[in-house]
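Section 5.1 Outputs to date
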Amino acid sequence: MRLWLAIFCGACLAAPAADAGGWLRKKGGGFVSTSNTLTDQLHTKSSFYLEFGLTAKTTIGVDIDMTLTGLGQTGAGQIFARRALPLGSAKTVWAYQVGLGMAFEGVAFAPLAQLGLSYGRSIKLGKYDGWLAVDTSAHWNFGTSVRALKIDTTAGLTLGARSKVMMQIFWTADSLGGTSTTLSPSYIYTPKRGKFSYLIAVESTQSTAASYGIKAGLWRDF
């Protein structure tokens, strides 16, 4: 019940959270998204993402992730700015991103910073148009001195006016020697008269132990 209540409440704000790649929002436009994941270990993961086109070459936003387990709640939140780089072409775009925020574990908080480089490219598979996005970022937790490198890859195809599919791979390595790889195929549906797009996905994570989950999300452009 808590999972679906969180999804419903998120709909009051919500919607697209595919990885951004190098694409920016047009000035004055943006989107907001929310998602919730329930794992086979009955852990819940929640995310909220908002970005807004401040100028034609600068996008700002908020990114929040939380995980609730039997041991408590952990997560991180940050504000960020993404700027276009003059490296693109007709099919490719590049951007860099900087972010500042806080990581938390229970009631303990620590400042963190993030620096990233993003790449985006339009693709075509048969008669379907699509996109490829690669987001690489370095993260510093100033409370624990842990450093992490993240590479998020998204490949998507537009199947029709109201349907899309995505395959996402999330890879993380930290300075303590830990690594994690998550594979997440998803389907996105936009009703003909609806303001929201609905996402359903499955996740398989390999780290010190394997875990599996089901994710539901909402997307909305504004």
